[in-house]
Design brief:
The structure holds 2 protein chains of 2 kinds. Chain A is α/β, with parallel strands linked by helices. Chain A is built from 7 helices and 12 strands. In chain A, strands 1-12-7-4-2-3 form a 6-stranded parallel beta sheet. Chain A has a 4-stranded mixed beta sheet with strand order 8-5-6-9. In chain A, strands 10-11 form a two-stranded antiparallel sheet. The N and C termini of chain A lie far apart (48 Å). In chain B, strands 1-10-7-4-2-3 form a 6-stranded parallel beta sheet, sandwiched between helices. In chain B, strands 8-5-6-9 form a 4-stranded mixed beta sheet. By secondary structure, chain B is of the alpha/beta class. The model of chain B has no long low-confidence stretch (mean pLDDT 95).
Chain lengths: 216, 469
């Protein structure tokens, strides 16, 4: 369909004819001048999470995160929890999986009625209290289609700012190995009715980040 | 006078005196002003951020062919399709053919001004395809069969009571009128559509050339669902949306969020580069990007106004504009309203049809001051006015009036005598209670408002007496 595209050459010819000479470049400041420098990424990340309605729980190690995850899943209503297929998550969720129905991402797409999803993250951004996920983190829908999204990560995954986060996914061919990435900041929201903020529009109403201080 | 221009005067006059509407809009924009102020304060240097965004966009627009080709190549490398549409009709046809060949019956759509521009919903519906607008504001105006009121907040002209009434009539299940309950009603209605639609249609805020990815920004998560669950994902995007590098988003994303809604960053900033890749859990089987020209290369050829293509559609100029605040978005009668709409519509739809919009401005420059990519908006409005005069698109009465004004202004004594005569005539007319009637020369103003008091003495006389003291 797209290969017999007559308009392509026409548009390109018009662009080239229109441009003639490019407007001269002006000096623009570097990122360091534009954004406020972040001294303590963990402190900043927690402060931003508090402001954007992300629940951030820091535990000394993965065992602690596993316990916290168990407690969290205990509060989630009935239904099959969708979990990213990853050895770390297999271990973290081992206890809870005895009592809860789990669908691993290796078993296919999540179901419409799934009450929660548990995934890893690619990096965490201190500047905005954001979680960056790729399709490797349980697919595209895992982090947006359930009412609760729980992210497990390590403090070493924290980067100070968005520029560093974007540069990180360029490394090791990751950018082209994943068909999609999402930078998630807080829970889904809308202010379309009288500018009043309502949480939980189409995406998760609750976003929880469980952070392990120790690396696995 | 074009039909669009006549309609504009009629609608603008009516909306300007709709006190209830003006109050709703005022409240919305007051809230916006408050949060945007806080948002800007988070930057080390907001002005430097604006300058950087201007430079990123300038670089992209001035090398548009190179970056579009780079983008296209990378999307194709990932197995996506890129279609270049010269006109709205070509873009519509591509999507309709695609839908027909894939047997699409239901489409979920996230907010896209370009889809509005090409009137996509009507075209799909005429083929019997059900289209669900999934952004809450768009969903509301779709149910009302109305265009969006504002490019960022489509339903800002409605109260919760009006929305509750609408939902009761069209959806049912409304138990309370508070915003959380209404959002829950919409969420339930749209939930099934997301999981059953065969095609998801989105716009894109940026096309990232070096990564071959579209960048979509949304708060609700609906755009992400549109790009994740259906079997086919189509993104319809203007050719001007390209940016050179992935790292450019590190500044553009926060600036767009701050200028658009006052948030430090929008909830979801998503990059999509292709269909589901081998080994991925989910995602569409097909990914199509429709690159739309539809008059944009005409604007590109206008060296004076080319920078209007830098626009990132944040809506800041609409919120700052005293005319938009008074008449709202619908009165413009165009897809793009407010100052940016008045600048670009003559290029997209023809100067003859849309030159009048450049006069819907006090030239106060508030739009230029707030534009996060530093487009010199009010200067472009002035240039459109000049072009309209040069192409003899202004009414004869205006030409005669300007000549008379020139004649009066070129002689101090003449000006004084004429000003006296006008003051006397107005006092006499208003003394005879002609204010606001068909005989009132200032009727356009006085029909719905009190006339300003006619001064007893001229400014020159007062100046002679007091020397400004």
């Amino acid at each position: 369909m797209g290969d017999e595209n007559r308009g392509r050459e026409q548009i390109l010819a018009r662009i080239r004819a229109a441009m003639g000479t490019a407007a001269p470049a002006q000096k623009a400041a570097a990122n360091e001048k534009i954004i406020v420098r972040i001294e303590n990424p963990l402190k900043r990340f927690r402060a931003e999470c508090a402001a954007n309605n992300t629940e951030c729980l820091v535990r000394p190690d993965w065992a602690g995160c596993g316990n916290a995850l168990g407690e969290l899943l205990g509060e989630i209503p009935e239904g099959e929890i969708f979990v990213q297929e990853a050895p770390l998550l297999r271990r973290a969720i081992a206890k809870s999986s005895e009592t809860r129905a789990i669908r691993w991402s290796s078993q296919g797409q999540l179901s419409e009625s799934s009450p929660a999803a548990v995934t890893l993250a690619r990096v965490l951004v201190a500047e905005s209290g954001s979680v960056l996920v790729s399709t490797a983190c349980g697919g595209r829908a895992a982090s947006v289609a359930t009412p609760v999204h729980i992210v497990l990560a390590e403090t070493r995954q924290l980067v100070p700012d968005l520029g560093t986060a974007l540069a990180a996914i360029r490394q090791h061919g990751e950018l082209f190995a994943n068909s999609s990435f999402s930078l998630i900041t807080g829970s889904s929201r809308t202010a379309d009715i009288e500018k009043i903020l309502v949480l939980g529009a189409h995406g998760p109403r609750r976003l929880v980040v469980l952070l392990s201080e120790q690396s696995e | 006078m074009s039909a669009a221009s006549r309609q504009f005067f009629q609608d603008a006059t009516a909306k300007a005196v709709d006190v209830e509407l003006r109050e709703i809009v005022r409240r919305g924009i007051d809230h916006y002003d408050l949060v945007v102020g806080r948002g800007k304060a988070r930057f080390a240097d907001w002005e430097a951020a604006r300058q950087r965004c201007h430079e990123i966009r300038r670089e992209a627009i001035n090398h548009l062919d190179r970056y579009l080709l780079e983008f296209e190549q990378r999307v194709r490398d990932r197995g996506g399709h890129v279609f270049w549409a010269e006109t709205a009709e070509e873009a519509r046809k591509y999507v309709l053919d695609l839908a027909a060949s894939a047997g699409v019956r239901t489409v979920v759509k996230s907010k896209s001004m370009v889809a509005e521009e090409i009137h996509l919903n009507g075209a799909l519906e005429s083929r019997g395809i059900k289209v669900w607008e999934t952004d809450l504001g768009e969903f509301i105006v779709q149910l009302r069969r109305e265009p969006p009121f504002h490019i960022v907040t489509p339903a800002m002209h409605l109260t919760r009571e009006q929305i509750a009434k609408l939902f009761r009539e069209k959806l049912g299940g409304v138990e309370a009128e508070d915003p959380p309950s209404l959002v829950a009603v919409a969420r339930r209605a749209l939930r099934r559509a997301f999981f059953s639609a065969e095609m998801g249609i989105t716009g894109a805020n940026f096309l990232v050339a070096d990564s071959g990815m579209i960048a979509i920004t949304s708060n609700e998560g609906n755009a992400r669902l549109c790009a994740s669950l259906p079997r086919i994902h189509v993104a319809i995007v203007g050719i001007e949306k390209v940016v050179p590098r992935l790292e450019d988003l590190a500044i553009l994303w926060p600036v767009l969020a701050t200028a658009g809604t006052g948030q430090p960053i929008t909830c979801y900033n998503t990059l999509v580069g292709g269909p589901r890749a081998p080994g991925e859990v989910d995602g569409p089987e097909e990914f199509h990007v429709v690159l739309l020209d539809n008059g944009r290369t005409r604007l590109l050829a206008d060296v004076e106004q080319r920078e209007a293509l830098h626009c990132i559609r944040c809506g800041a100029c609409l919120n700052a504009c005293p005319v938009f605040r008074s008449i709202g978005g619908h009165a413009y009668g165009t897809v793009y309203s407010g100052p940016i709409g008045s600048v670009i519509m003559p290029h997209l739809g023809g100067l003859g049809a849309y030159q009048h919009l450049s006069y819907a401005s006090s030239l106060c420059g508030a739009c230029t001051e707030v534009c996060p990519v530093k487009i010199d908006l009010h200067r472009h409005l002035l240039q459109n006015r000049r072009n309209a005069v040069e192409e003899s698109l202004r009414p004869l009465s205006e030409k005669i009036g300007m000549r008379l004004w020139q004649w009066a202004m070129l002689d101090a004594g003449r000006f004084r005598r004429l000003a006296w005569a006008v003051r006397m005539a107005m006092r006499l007319a208003y003394g005879m209670r002609l204010e606001g009637t068909a005989l009132d020369p200032a009727r356009a103003w006085t029909k719905n408002r009190a006339a300003p008091p006619i001064p007893r003495h001229s400014f020159r006389a007062m100046w002679r007496k007091t020397r400004g003291g």
